[in-house]
Amino acid sequence: MTLPFIAPTLQRVLVYIFLRGEVGVSIFFVLSGCLLSMPFWSHRVNGGPKPKLLNYARNRLARIAPGFWVAMIVSTFAGAWAFHTSVNWVRFFSGMTFTNAFYYKTLFPSDYDGVLWTIGNEVFCYAVLPFIIFSIFKLSKSIRGCAIGLFIWIAVLQGMQPLIIKYFMTGFAFKGWQWGLIGGAKIWMPFWNPICFLSQFMIGSAAALLICVERKNHYLKAWMWDVICVVAGISAFALIIWRENPGNPDDFTRQPYVSPFYAILIAIVLAAAASSVVMHRLLDNRFFRYVARISFGLYLWHLFIVTVMQQTIAKDFYSGGNYDVFRWMDDVLVAYTLAWIVASLSYKYFEKPILDWNRKRLTEQ
Asked: What is the pTM of this model?
């Protein structure tokens, strides 16, 4: 939205602030790493059942693959048909096989649903997680040893970043968003690379380990975790205001989303909220739980819906393109409503039946 009654300088400031919402990608990887590694750490800390790799793989495949494949197929072929463009088969198959994250020409597997770029990185993290944790289990039998092992792994992943940037830097030809998604990916990579996101993912795993240990030993009084949660949350927000440069790697870490510092603060927020008195009640409410349930569908489809609107009923529905406040609000309402409807229907009639079927098959084993 472009507000004609706001000075251009202030408009640029507002856009700069709102674009910092891209750090949600980092939050997602930290949260995902925390949730998915919880059963592994619970096994080591509390003596719970040892997760089976086959069940882990089936659960991840059932949750991610069907919805993503449908979004890939629809956005690729419907977009090519509607907008009279050709299908880039290399990008399509890299997306369908979750290998798009390793090369700038395939980072964005669909021209009409740009957010699908994260899924390849996500699946890479899913695949590597159990091997990292089992390697830690193999070398250490104590909780302290596991914590040290996890810290070493995160340090190694962080240490790989300058090497990746040095040896895999992209060339200057056709580099820039003016050349489309591939040109933009050439700017992002190698700063946006799978190892960087795996590092954030494993920082989330550290939060899970802290949660398991705290639930067993109760190191701090519960209300202290509320204080830690709030302080870490405020610190994360302040860090983004201070350091985040939207669409660019941090000047110091040379990684996106001020990683690893922002990811560490978010991990502290998650770990503290899990043991808190008040904060977990504020965060774990009914509305958030429903959003979490349909969130994968919301993520997969919202930008495709916006792209279709940009090409059809709302051609000025892009950053700084709309001068009519009320029409902009109408466009946003339409996009939100359609995304919510599609995500809800997708979960109820497509994603949930697959998850239920998979869960039933696992219980029958």
From this structure: 0.93
